[in-house]
Amino acid sequence: MARGSESIDGLTAEFAKMPGIGVRTARRLAFYIQSIGMNEADKLIEAIREVKARAKRCSMCYNVAEQDPCPICSTGNRDRSTVCVVERVQDLAIIESSGSYNGLYHVLGGHIAPLDDVHPEDLSIDLLVRRVTEGGIDEVIIATNPDTEGDATANYLVERLQPLGVTLSMLARGVPAGGQIEYAARGTVAGAIAGRRPLPAKAP
Amino acid sequence: MPYEKTEAILIRATDFSETSRVFSFFSRRFGRMSTLAKGVKRKSSRMIGQVDLFSCGEIVFSSGWYRDRMHILAEACAFETFPAIRDDMARYYAACHAAELARAMTEEEDPAPDLFGELRGLMRRLQAGVEPAVALLAFEARLLLLTGFLPELDRCVVCRGDSGRGPAAFSPGLGGVVCPDCSSEGGDLFEGVSTGALGILARLAEGRVTRLDRVRIAPTVKRQVRRFLDRYEAYVLGYPLRTAKHL
Ligand SMILES: [Zn+2]
Ligand SMILES: [Zn+2]
Question: Among A27, A81, B80, B211, whose CB has the most other CB atoms within 10 angstroms?
Answer without folding.
Answer: A27
